[in-house]
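Late entry, written up from scratch paper. The run itself happened at the end of the previous shift, but nothing got recorded in the book at the time, so transcribing now.
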Amino acid sequence: MYKSGDVILAQIQFTDTFEIKKRPSVVLFEEFGNVIVAGITSNLRMEGISLSKDEGVIKESIIKTNYIFTISNKMIVKKLFSLSIEKKKLLHEELIKRLVGLIN
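Output as recorded:
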């Protein structure tokens, strides 16, 4: 069972190809074997929430709050680390802002 804020390594299928690669993602929530995640990238030009090496990533990275998708828990290779309470709160606040922005 994974919980919100867990950073995982998972088999991810890209939307523009049939290629599947292992990529880091952060768990938003899990329900009935489905895991909703936000992608993580080392492309620092992308928008999102920064992650530093001190927080556990191999390279400085960005949590892409605009790249959210569902995977099966069977696609998860392993848990890497968990976000701090502060970073998890920041992530949730950013996601709420994005969702409210869709309504307005």
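The beta strands are 6-13, 20-31, 34-41, 49-51, 61-72, 76-82.
(Scratch paper discarded after transcription.)
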